Structures are given as structure tokens and as C-alpha cells.
């Protein structure tokens, strides 16, 4: 494709899980769909003792994350020939001259025009080290082609470390070269939030405090922490999901209309949105408006599962949250007084991510005697699964009188049958290859998100009154989270109704 120039993608941390499970399958899919330029190559780098042949075998030919089809059998071989490996030796903190030579040789042989993307898929502690050594080797400036840097999450551990990382990376790369990945932004339905809001005239006029009662966002996973206990126990749901993915969704719901769809036009509005979140830093508000939970043993998909504290790599006395629910406000003209309820959790009954816009009750109730008071017009944006949009509204029950019943207008993305939905990493990689940073987070965006999250993390970690509630795996989280939402409202828990959690408790 013309929009994607020749280039070499250089992955640090190539022997890791992300490369095998996400990056290479995404690249293969782009290759299969003919999105990659003819002159394209991948160079995997790590400390593992491997070579081009074994690396190709591992990440392409034998990679079980690339779906096996009759059609792609031959393609795997031709794609594998574009994949190379470089063994960095014992450390990432070494002289990169030999790497530089390999890159130059590959660039020449594969005719990639001096265009390089460096992808950091290592532990975050190596990001600065790699950037510094690339710079020393003269690999960070545009020498004839262009150079970009993709940085994986987590971007920092708190505001101070994110700020330091931004400073460090910006010593070696221009901000315009840095692409901070957040795979939720690569999801089609997350991007569709922008289109729903700004390509229609029927939603945006209502998108404010005059018509919206509250906003609810749920991100639920049925899985536990799996093999990532060691990482997760130091992170927790707030850092792992909320600071990045959930706040990205919040920013798209909250933002003002950008003047156009250029990357900076959209990113400027997202930063403004994040900066308008009311920071909760007094213990009373934090106590009232934040709930943290941790899963106990229970059931997942009908099978018994262990509790979080029994997971591999997790401290048996851990209080780390696998559930986080927050109520907060947005201090700007559009959203003054509208509560936002946002939760993210593991070991829920199902996997679902959705945004629910709850509209206010009509100003005057004409059909007072109806059994169903149509108090809740809702717009539900289903991010995953069953990607689509659902509008709930009231209709008249046929017959005498004015009985009101709820009805649905339901759109599923799958109905656009001939459109394949690109996987998030495919979309994001392709965008970076084409130099489009719209769906990548900017330095100030990441820092604004940390500014909001930091005081909550600190409160949970240090305040003696900050409690972690236990909930049984397979339930909808600590039941007192229901009390976060005032009035007769409660969380929309898609799927079957579950009875009271017998395991609900305070974790000590
Ligand atoms: N896996 C996933 O689904 C996701 C991962 N990420 C992020 O992507 C990055 C890579 O993740 P992932 O591939 O899962 O991680 P892995 O632990 O599976 O791989 C890490 C890679 O970094 C290298 N490495 C260098 N030093 C170390 C070290 N001290 N400890 C461990 N590995 C080291 C490893 O190779 P070698 O030791 O041979 O050099 C390996 O290639 C991380 O920043 C992670 O947070 C983000 C979202 C999802
Ligand atoms: O970044 C992360 O995301 C996954 C969830 O991603 P999804 O695309 O499956 O919704 C989460 O499991 C993981 O803990 C987190 O690091």
C-alpha cells in the first residue's frame, strides 16, 4: 500500500510473550491482507541465544497464535523470510555498534530506505537504557529515512516515574517520534466513540449535564491474573487497567469536539478532558468514592478457581486490588455535577467492556400511571464483545391507555458482514508505520492520567482506613460497590443475575 513506506521494524524483547502472542500475529495478518509494504522486514532482538532460523520457527512457522488456515500456509513461509534475529548478548546496556551494523546491512538488503521503528517490548526498566544506547549508536535521528519509537505499557509506575520516563525518552527522541501504545485505542469500538459522538447530530446535542444523569463504564474480565501474578501484584487494577485503558475511554466520552481529525487536534482535546477530572485527594472523598476488591476462590465458567492470594507470584498476604470501582466528577462546563462510575476487575462472571450513558428522566412525567416509568433512556456502547450500540427507550404498549414498555434499538458491528474488524495491535502497528499518532498517547496525556490516579493509589496503600474487600471469583465484585451509585440505580451487570455473594468480606 502506498501509504505505508518501506521500513524495518526492530523489536526489543523479541523472545517475550507479547512478540509471540500479539506483535508477530498482527504483522502476519497485515501481511496477509496486503497492508505491509513490499520492502519490509522485522528484526527481533533479545539476550536469548537464537538465530534467524530458530526465531522464524518460533514466532512465525510454529506460532500457535497465528491461526492455521489453508490459505495462509504458503504465506507463513514467505512472511518468515522477512523476519530476522539479533542476539544482544548478556545485557541491553551495551555498545550497539554491532547492532547498528546489522541494521544497516538489513536495511540495504531489504531496501527499507533507512526507515526504522524501534519497538520496546521489554520490562519498562529497560526503556531508558535502550533509548540511550540507540542514541549513542546514532540510531535515534533521521538519517536519510525516519525513526520512530513505540513504547509498551506500563508507562511509569506513578506520576513521578512517568514524568521521569518522558524526560529520559525525550532526551534521545523528539516527542513526535515517540508512540506510547495503549491497545484499547486500537479497538474499533473505542474509536467508534468519536464517530458516534461527532459524526451524528442526534447524540451530541444531548451529550451534557442537561440531559445526562450519570455515566457508567464497566471493564470486566472473567480471567484471573494467570501467570502474571509477579507483575500484577506490584501493579493492581488501578495501574494495570484504569490509568491507561479506562481513562482513555473516559477521555473520549468527556472530550469537547475537536476542530478536526488531525492527531494533535484530537489529542489536545483528550488532554483537556483528562485535566478536567476532579482529583480526589482528601481521605473522606477517597473513602466514600473508591472501592477496591480482591477475588477469593470461586467459580469461573463453571469450574472452581483459586483466589488471588493463591496465584503464582502473588504475596499470600497481598492487598493488591483486582477490582477497582470509582465515582468521580468532571469539572467543566459540559459535565458539572454529572457523576461518573467506572469499574474494572478480574474474575467477573463474564468478559465485557461497555460505556452506558444514562439519560435523565423526562422533565415532566405525563404517563405517571404506567407500570414502567421510562426513567432510564440509555445509550450503551458495547466495546467488547458483541461490539455495537444499543439504545434503550420507551414505547407504548399496544391497547388502551398509555402503558410504557422498554424497547431496544440494537446495532451489531458483525452486521457489517463484509468488514473485517482489525485487531487492536494490527491497527496500531499500521498507524505507526504510516506515521499516524492519533491513537497513541502523548506525554502530557499520560501524565494527566497519572495525576488523577496517583492520590487514589497512595490512599489505598497508606491510609489505615482503606479497606480491600473480598469477592468470590465469578461474582460481580464487592457488593458494597452497588452503593456507590445513588438513587434507585445500580451497575448494569450484563448476563445472568447472580445472587448475593457468600464470600463478600473485608480482607485482612
Ligand atoms: N504480554 C502481554 O500481553 C502484554 C505485555 N505488555 C508489556 O510489554 C512488555 C513485554 O511484555 P512480555 O512480552 O509479556 O514480557 P516477557 O517477560 O514475556 O518478555 C520480556 C522480554 O524482555 C526481555 N528481558 C530483558 N530483561 C529482562 C528481565 N530482566 N526480565 C524479563 N525479561 C527481560 C526478555 O528476553 P531476554 O531475557 O532474552 O532478553 C523478553 O524478550 C512489558 O513491558 C509488558 O508490560 C503490555 C501489554 C500486554
Ligand atoms: O493491558 C491489559 O489488558 C488486558 C485486557 O485486554 P483486553 O483487550 O483483553 O480487554 C488485561 O488482561 C491485562 O491485565 C492488562 O495488562
Automatic annotation (TrEMBL):
NADP(+) binds at residues 47, 153. SUPFAM superfamilies: Glyceraldehyde-3-phosphate dehydrogenase-like, C-terminal domain (SSF55347), NAD(P)-binding Rossmann-fold domains (SSF51735). Signal peptide: none annotated. The active site is at 245 (proton acceptor). The keyword NADP applies. Residues 194-491 form the Glucose-6-phosphate dehydrogenase C-terminal domain. It holds the Pfam family G6PD_C. Keywords: Carbohydrate metabolism, Glucose metabolism, NADP, Oxidoreductase. Its EC number is 1.1.1.49. Transmembrane segments: none annotated. It comes from the Bacteria. Belongs to the glucose-6-phosphate dehydrogenase family. This is Glucose-6-phosphate 1-dehydrogenase. It comes from Robiginitalea aurantiaca. The gene is zwf.
Amino acid at each position: 500500500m502506498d501509504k505505508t513506506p518501506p521500513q524495518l521494524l526492530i523489536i526489543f524483547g523479541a523472545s517475550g510473550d507479547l512478540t509471540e502472542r500479539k506483535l508477530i500475529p498482527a504483522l502476519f495478518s497485515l501481511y496477509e491482507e496486503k497492508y505491509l509494504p513490499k520492502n519490509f522486514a522485522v528484526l527481533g532482538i533479545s539476550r536469548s541465544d537464537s538465530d534467524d532460523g530458530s526465531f522464524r520457527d518460533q514466532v512465525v512457522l510454529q506460532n500457535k497464535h497465528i491461526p492455521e488456515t489453508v490459505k495462509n500456509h504458503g504465506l507463513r513461509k514467505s512472511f518468515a523470510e522477512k523476519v530476522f534475529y539479533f542476539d544482544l548478548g548478556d545485557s541491553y546496556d551495551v555498545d550497539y555498534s554491532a547492532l547498528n551494523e546489522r541494521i544497516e546491512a538489513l536495511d540495504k538488503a531489504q531496501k527499507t530506505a533507512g526507515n526504522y521503528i524501534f519497538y520496546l517490548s521489554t520490562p519498562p526498566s529497560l526503556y531508558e537504557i535502550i533509548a540511550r544506547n540507540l542514541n549513542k549508536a546514532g540510531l535515534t535521528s533521521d538519517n536519510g529515512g525516519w525513526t520512530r519509537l513505540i513504547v509498551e505499557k506500563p508507562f511509569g509506575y506513578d506520576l513521578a516515574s512517568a514524568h521521569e520516563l518522558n524526560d529520559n525518552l525525550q532526551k534521545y527522541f523528539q516527542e513526535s517520534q515517540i508512540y506510547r501504545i495503549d491497545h484499547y485505542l486500537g479497538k474499533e469500538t473505542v474509536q467508534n466513540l468519536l464517530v458516534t459522538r461527532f459524526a451524528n447530530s442526534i447524540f451530541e446535542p444531548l451529550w451534557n449535564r442537561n440531559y445526562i444523569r450519570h455515566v457508567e463504564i464497566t471493564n470486566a474480565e472473567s480471567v484471573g491474573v494467570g501467570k502474571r501474578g509477579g507483575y500484577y501484584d506490584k501493579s493492581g487494577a488501578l495501574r494495570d487497567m484504569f490509568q491507561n485503558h479506562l481513562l482513555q475511554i473516559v477521555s473520549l466520552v468527556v472530550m469537547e469536539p475537536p476542530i478536526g481529525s488531525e492527531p494533535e487536534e484530537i489529542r489536545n482535546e483528550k488532554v483537556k478532558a483528562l485535566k478536567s477530572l476532579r482529583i480526589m485527594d482528601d481521605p473522606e472523598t477517597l473513602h466514600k468514592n473508591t472501592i477496591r476488591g480482591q477475588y477469593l476462590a470461586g467459580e469461573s465458567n463453571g469450574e472452581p478457581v483459586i483466589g488471588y492470594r493463591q496465584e503464582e507470584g502473588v504475596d499470600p498476604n497481598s492487598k493488591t486490588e483486582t477490582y477497582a470501582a470509582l465515582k468521580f466528577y468532571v469539572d467543566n462546563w459540559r459535565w458539572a455535577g454529572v457523576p461518573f462510575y467506572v469499574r474494572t476487575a478480574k474474575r467477573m462472571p463474564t468478559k465485557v467492556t461497555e460505556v452506558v450513558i444514562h439519560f435523565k428522566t423526562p422533565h415532566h412525567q405525563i404517563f405517571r400511571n404506567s407500570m414502567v416509568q421510562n426513567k432510564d433512556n440509555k445509550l450503551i456502547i458495547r466495546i467488547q464483545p458483541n461490539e455495537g450500540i444499543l439504545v434503550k427507550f420507551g414505547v407504548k404498549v399496544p391497547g388502551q391507555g398509555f402503558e410504557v414498555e422498554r424497547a431496544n434499538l440494537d446495532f451489531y458491528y458483525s452486521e457489517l458482514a463484509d468488514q473485517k474488524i482489525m485487531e487492536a495491535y494490527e491497527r496500531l502497528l499500521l498507524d505507526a508505520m504510516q506515521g499516524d499518532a492519533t491513537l497513541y498517547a502523548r506525554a502530557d496525556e499520560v501524565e494527566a492520567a497519572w495525576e488523577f490516579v496517583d492520590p487514589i493509589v497512595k490512599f489505598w496503600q497508606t491510609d489505615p482506613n482503606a479497606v480491600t474487600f473480598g469477592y468470590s471469583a465469578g461474582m460481580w465484585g464487592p457488593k458494597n460497590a452497588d452503593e456507590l451509585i445513588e438513587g434507585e440505580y445500580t451497575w448494569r451487570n450484563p448476563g445472568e443475575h447472580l445472587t448475593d455473594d457468600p464470600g463478600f468480606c473485608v480482607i485482612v
